[in-house]
Write a structure and sequence with these properties.
single chain; alpha+beta; six-stranded antiparallel beta sheet; 3 helices
């Protein structure tokens, strides 16, 4: 993914309150169930930083996040980079109340190019990953 790419935007609707969705996307115990089991710590506080390792085949991806914006139960933004590779992005989760559901809008904006020769950094792979996490894993978690 490159800086010149349009942001990736994924939207999903959940049969859950904004508060329940917020807890699922910001509570470390809940994030382990649907997002990344390797997350050791997370706080919805500006300036909070965390790192955790995810392995894909023979490659390591040490995720580095720093929370840059928080509007409780409405919006959280954090940077997303890796120790092993160049590249940086902002990921924003925004929540909107609808009639009987909560709409989650995810935006991913690249601020420094990621390597183009690694399949996990391809735009299509990124879109597929977010659709999996938000459209399948989080949806199933919130339905429990």
């Amino acid at each position: 993914m490159k800086v010149t790419d349009d942001p990736i935007i994924i939207e999903e609707y959940y049969n859950a309150s904004e508060e329940k969705v917020w807890r699922a996307i910001t509570g470390v115990k809940e994030m382990k169930f649907w997002f990344f089991e390797a997350i050791k710590s997370f706080k919805a506080e500006v300036g909070f930083k965390t790192q955790f390792l995810v392995q894909v085949e023979d490659r390591n991806y040490t995720h580095c996040w720093e929370v840059t914006e928080v509007i409780p139960i409405k919006k959280i933004t954090y940077t997303w980079s890796y120790i092993e590779y160049p590249g940086d992005a902002f990921v924003t989760f925004e929540l909107f109340k609808t009639d009987h559901q909560t709409r989650l809008k995810l935006s991913l904006t690249v601020t420094e190019d990621f390597p183009s020769d690694i399949p996990e950094f391809a735009r299509e792979s990124c879109i597929a990953g977010w659709n999996y996490f938000l459209g399948q894993r989080l949806k199933e978690y919130l339905a429990e």
